[in-house]
Design goal:
Length: 254
């Protein structure tokens, strides 16, 4: 009897790009991919904190480099990616939230969130997919979305709109690029303890509400998303595309 062979979760010889990699979920994604053997290009808008993150990863023996990149700047992003060697894995963890009641949302707030969370994500996807197709790579594109791409949230109308739209975008792109062997999925965390989330978590009433919604009873840690990143980036998810991996502690089960 020939037994089935478990898929590899190694990424040796692969190049990975991670946006938003200077801290939080993006940094966790970069470390997860590097630990599996990938050469990781860590990208973010601010070079100071990014350089510190890359130096810390290099000190652990990871193959890593820093890249200044703002995905909301479409022309510069296109030129920057064109100058890079092709990527096998792309994790887009760049994101923005300007949380406020919907009636207090300004047009500037709306545009700022959409320019990163949707517009930037859209054209980052098309740029890297074009190169994957041209070079015959069967790559994996992962967008860090949110549980708020599947439910609503207090003071998060614009953020939810951007993430719901991202989910639909990924499904359409999966259908288009599947025949070329390119997979694209989202990873949807609940509240994760990151610098971005601290403002919300420091509000006692809001934190109590959050913890009441998470069935497992705790705020997420960056380590909680790393297994999901490895899964979606590697052959472990070889038949997975156009879907969302929800890491929410049971929030959306309510």
């Amino acid at each position: 009897m020939k037994l089935p062979v478990p898929p590899s979760t190694r990424l040796d010889g692969k190049r990975a790009l991670v946006t938003g990699a200077s801290s939080g979920i993006g940094l966790g994604a970069a470390v997860a991919l590097a630990a599996q053997g990938a050469h990781v290009v860590c990208a973010a808008r601010g070079l100071d904190r990014l350089t510190q993150a890359v130096e810390a990863m290099a000190a652990e023996g990871h193959a890593v480099e820093a890249l200044a990149l703002d995905i909301a700047d479409l022309d510069t992003t296109a030129a920057t990616l064109a100058a890079q060697a092709p990527f096998d894995v792309v994790v887009n963890a760049a994101g923005m939230g300007r949380h406020a009641p919907a009636v207090k949302t300004t047009a500037d707030d709306y545009d700022a969130v959409m320019n990163v969370n949707l517009r930037g994500a859209y054209f980052l996807s098309t740029r890297v997919a074009q190169t994957m197709i041209a070079t015959g790579r069967r790559g994996s594109i992962i967008h860090v979305s949110s549980q708020m791409g599947h439910v609503g949230g207090i003071d998060r109308a614009v953020y939810c709109a951007s993430k719901h739209a991202l989910e639909g975008m990924v499904k359409a792109m999966a259908i288009e690029w599947g025949p070329q062997g390119i997979r694209i999925n989202t990873l949807c965390p609940t509240f994760i303890r990151t610098p971005l989330a601290e403002v919300t978590l420091q509000n006692p009433e809001r934190r109590k509400w959050i913890e009441s919604m998470i069935t497992l009873g705790r705020i997420g840690e960056v380590e909680d998303i790393m297994g999901g990143i490895i899964y979606l980036a590697t052959d472990a998810s070889a038949l997975v595309t156009g879907t969302a991996l929800i890491i929410d502690g049971g929030w959306t089960a309510h």
